[in-house]
Specification:
Elements: H1 3-14, H2 17-25, H3 27-36, H4 52-59, H5 63-68, H6 73-84, H7 94-105
InterPro entries: LigA_sf
């Protein structure tokens, strides 16, 4: 649809621990629920629309595809960080996630700086 909607979805997940937990538990189900829950008292005409490619990227937690689709790099990194923190443990930590992210998105263009 638009980069705006990709960014809106990432922010909706990343800004809530509950949303992160639900997304991690069932990414495809979370995407479907988010898409169907557009209206609110404040925004009754909130049109939540993702293209099939965008929906698939979120449903499969494919950060390389999201990068290629134009996700905002800052929001994407925080989204990926939130979605993968549960994997941290012996032998895999924040630095490993950074390197995996860099390797995955590198074929799609310049990888933004992450210290």
């Amino acid at each position: 649809m638009t980069k705006y909607m990709i960014d809106k979805f990432m922010r909706a997940v990343e800004m809530s621990d509950d949303a992160v937990s639900r997304y991690v538990a069932d990414p495809a189900g979370f995407v479907d629920a988010w898409l169907s829950g557009g209206g609110t008292p404040d925004l009754p005409t909130d049109d939540r629309v993702l293209t099939p490619e965008e929906r698939e990227a979120f449903a499969t937690v494919d950060h390389a595809a999201l990068y290629a689709l134009g996700a905002h790099p800052y929001l994407l990194w925080h989204f990926i960080e939130a979605a993968h923190t549960h994997e941290f443990g012996d032998g895999f930590g924040w630095r490993d996630l950074v390197e995996r992210y860099r390797a995955d998105v590198a074929p799609h263009g310049h990888v933004d700086y992450i210290p």
